[in-house]
Amino acid sequence: SNVSAEEPQLAEPHLGAVLASAGLDAEYVRAEGNILYQRGEDGGEIPVVDYAGGYGSLLLGHNNPAITAYAKELLDAGVPVHSQFSLHPEAAELALALNRIVRRETGDAEPFFAVFANTGAEANEAAVKHAEMDRGIRLGALLESIGSGLAAVREAVRDGSATVPTEVFTRLGLGPHAAGAAALDELIDHINAHNEAQAQRPPVFLTPEGSFHGKLVSTVQLTHNEGYRTPFRALAAQARFVPLDQPGALRKIVDEERGTLLGLVVEDGQVRVSEQESPVICAFILEPVQGEGGIRELSPEFVREIQEVCAEVGTPVIVDEIQSGMGRTGDFLAGTRLGLRGDYYTLAKSLGGGLAKISVLLVRASRYQGQFELIHSSTFAKDGFSNRIALKVLELLEADDGAAYRRAAELGDRLLAVLGSVRDDFPEVVKDVRGRGLMLGLEFHDQSGAAAPPVAEAARAGLFGYLVAGHLLRAHRVRTFPTASAPGTLRFEPSIQLSDDDIAWLESALRDTCDIIRGGYQRPLALP
Ligand code: PMP
Q1: Whole-prediction pTM value?
Q2: What is the CB < 6 Å shell around ligand 1?
Q3: Among 116, 211, 213, which is best to mutate for testing ligand 1, by the most ligand atoms less than 8 A from CB?
Q4: Which of 54, 62, 275, 384 has the fewest CB neighbours in a 10 Å radius?
Q5: Check: complex ipTM more than 0.85
Q6: Which atom of ligand 1 is the closest one to the Cα of 291?
């Protein structure tokens, strides 16, 4: 490094100190496949097997040779990287390739339009913005048609072709009224005031408890973790968090939030009140397999309930496949096996092949508002380099009739079997192992009553997983981290370049760690 020890540390020093406290302050000098290398004191390389996998961005491994070779080719050829506001045939090709894969898996006949962005949270922000724009347009159209209906009723009452029965007034809580122009005006004022109040309600988002959808202004309000979310509550629309696997809970929340718009119609010469669903609930956003929430796959029953209730109230479903997608679970989309059909999909992480920063929002054609393209953009989005890298990633995933997906599924089964054998041998230490493909989690039993005071203290602070991660790194050169919102669960999200040796390496590291925990820390964890 060119920075001397006397210089102040100005790049997020607080985070560095937190990492150091668990012995996680490692520096890596090279990366290849499933391995990161540290520099040893003798100048040699020390390999670390990587189960954090870039938090999901490295399904194809660090510096995948096919991707780095292609990147060099692109740079040598001088492809335009920043040519905003010009035609991007490679982006059109990427959108078509994504459509072919998504439609093959979901069986959905409708096309999806693609809006490109840079990060996962940004793609979700775009989804939120698009859904809100669409909601505003639908709300405006409803109010307009109600307005024309009211004008027509006024005309019909004026020319005597319709009368207003008293029950119309009582129904709206206005008390009995004599029919007449003044009474009709009062009725219409009441309806307009009701509709105006409905239209002014802020949008409501729904998302399962445990969700993680990013840390930007609107997406952090859809991220369940209170530490991330609550300091910024005032900045954006709020979500209702739906408990997992409590049949009926979603419907109850929807019934609490939904609203109606009122109108008037004439039927057989009589004025009647009409009611329509007001689009208050902007979107339901979910991860088919929750990542940061502790590697939890949604149940097919919950997915079915979500689809039914959302269809009933006309709420679009945003499927966040940022961590679970791109083949990690053995399908391109983790929602495929759950029978999930989204109106929006977001993809990021492994879409950039571990080299480019790219994310994409896919929007069902029948929901798509083309004006969005004119009011949402980023300097860096849809750049010529990232688009082409993403196309290469899709080509690699789809090669040999989807060999990469099969590899992710098969490696995942083997890894899960190993985690399961550790759980079976240490049931008093390991509470659960779960996940699908190369998106696996191992949850420890609560250690807040552990015999070793520093361990108990860390566990009470929600940091036990970080102590274990520090031990795995320092004692075993295994890199992993707890999931961000469920710190008692370790994540295992390696690349499809994972080898048998890597799996055996992890197994012995986990067995040693579980042995220490079961032994009441008589033998200590390797901490700084
Ligand atoms: N959604 C999910 C499901 C994620 O796992 C993440 C990142 N952990 C994000 C969104 C946010 O992505 P990014 O970090 O690229 O903003």
Answers
A1: 0.97
A2: 55, 119-121, 124, 212-214, 287, 291-292, 320, 322-323, 348
A3: 213
A4: 275
A5: yes
A6: 5
In this predicted model, what pLDDT tens digit does every residue of 442-494 receive, in sequence order?
Answer: 999 999 999 999 899 999 999 999 999 999 999 999 999 999 999 999 999 99
Q: How many Å apart are CA 483 and CA 290, to the nearest integer?
A: 10
Which residue has a Cα nearest atom 15 of ligand 1? Answer: 120
Q: What is the DSSP letter of 332?
A: S
Summarised one tens digit per residue, pLDDT across range 178-215 is 666 778 999 999 999 999 999 999 999 999 999 999 99
Tell me which long-range contacts 404-410 makes (C-beta under 8 A, separation of at least 24).
404/59, 404/60, 404/327, 404/496, 405/327, 405/330, 405/331, 405/332, 406/330, 407/496, 408/59, 408/327, 408/328, 408/329, 408/330, 408/437, 408/438, 408/496, 409/329, 409/330, 409/437
Q: Determine the Cα–Cα distance for residues 188 and 183; give it in Å rounded to an integer.
A: 9
The rounded Å distance from CA 215 to ligand 1 centre is 8
Hey, what are 309's tokens? 């209730």
pLDDT, residue 5, reads 79
CA-wise closest residue to 353 among 318, 401, 385: 385
How far apart are alpha carbons 358 and 81 in whole angstroms?
13
SS3 356: coil
Q: Name which residue sits closest to atom 12 of ligand 1, judged by CA.
A: 120
